[in-house]
Amino acid sequence: MADRLEVLDEEWERGLAIVAHPDDVEYSAGTAVARWTSEGRHVAYVMVTRGEAGLGDDVPPAQAAAIREAEQVRSAEIVGVHEVVFLDHRDGMIEYGLPLRRDLAREIRRYRPELILGLNRHETWGGPSFNTADHRNVGLAVLDAVGDAANRWIHPELVDEGFEPWSGVQAVCFANSPRSTHAVDVTGFLDVGIASLRAHEAYLAHVGTDAEAWLRGGVEGTGPRIGVEHAVPFEVVRP
Ligand SMILES: [Zn+2]
Predict the structure, then answer these.
(1) Which of 15, 52, 68, 206 has the most CB atoms around it within 10 Å of its CB?
(2) Ion ligand 1 contact residues with beta carbon within 5 A
(3) Would you kindly state where each structural domain of the chain is located, as residue ranges?
(4) Mean pLDDT for each consecutive 10-residue tract of the chain (239 residues)?
């Protein structure tokens, strides 16, 4: 059996997911979000792009953005998330740098989360398959933006915009990381997680994912690592 994981501390009330694309949360941690919101925690999502490069050659970006934005909003609602922010960085071309850090720090100051949810920022998913630049750049920028959000002298224009510093982030949890350290019991929430992923109807049709097989395999493989039926793993980094 795979190594044990620690159970993620759940002494928090406000969570913020920050990911590159519509579908990034649903492919990984949607079942955990469903559990958290069912317990009364507030979770919001920030999408760095609208996923406009994700539907293939036949669907131009403007059309794809509208489809993917609507699918993301629906999938969030299914897991009890009613605020989805779309930033306007370009899908497939997200650049790590101060503009991205500033945009993420602004959302951290706006939502004032104790827990941030992200997606794997490493070069691979654990095997030979390469992780994309968008995921790597956003993951690194999330970590830096946590520090930026806490310091009024970094991106000082944010204070002028009315966003006071926020230093309350306790943990950044990266889903689908090859270096997972913790897990969340999601037993009983797989069905709603599958429904949330299936809301990405056009995207799943394009990439050919079987939502149930994908998510079931993940949670069944992780559950025993914390002694439960179903769990979602995270790599936890603390500021
Ligand atoms: Zn993605």
Answers:
(1) 68
(2) 20-21, 24
(3) 6-237
(4) 86 97 96 98 98 96 98 98 97 98 98 98 94 98 98 98 98 97 98 98 95 96 97 97
